[in-house]
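Supplementary material to the annual report.
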Amino acid sequence: AQSVTQLDSQVPVFEEAPVELRCNYSSSVSVYLFWYVQYPNQGLQLLLKYLSGSTLVKGINGFEAEFNKSQTSFHLRKPSVHISDTAEYFCAVRPGGYQKVTFGIGTKLQVIP
Amino acid sequence: DVKVTQSSRYLVKRTGEKVFLECVQDMDHENMFWYRQDPGLGLRLIYFSYDVKMKEKGDIPEGYSVSREKKERFSLILESASTNQTSMYLCATGTGGPYEQYFGPGTRLTVT
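Predicted assembly:
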């Protein structure tokens, strides 16, 4: 079975500052990795995904994430955040060959003006 | 664009009532999922379906059942609602393969 750990439940950051949201996973098989964002009172939408190939993945809204197999991590980064990035972010892992996805508990990003 | 709609955004029901939550998608996706979202617990899979009339239990199926009579529609049923089923319920769809899921806007269910 796989698991996902999001190390920070809340991250406050000033506007225009950089941010990193951390995600670690465990799995006995190869995995696909995802970051989703949830704005208030909405469903989740895909931010970016790692399927294979380059370990640095770029997503929407200026976000990127790096897959590190040796450290089993998939941290999300943005060099300069905006007020509109205030949302909850979920890391998710899907083992190869399976349809079930395991989500982390989420990290709330609070951008301070 | 994939569209996933859920029958209600907010729902208030009484303990013991039978509750139906419906999800409809317009993209001909094979897979459909029901999650519940609770603070501090993230998203937990209740049930999923990979074809019409096919279903599989997720991590927390107790107290729930599902129905998928048509490819585009996936219903979650609470046979006898209880207060501990007060939660946000999210429907999602996806194709086969290593691809992302597409989520509906969610139904916030309160059981009193």
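The mean pLDDT of chain B is 93.
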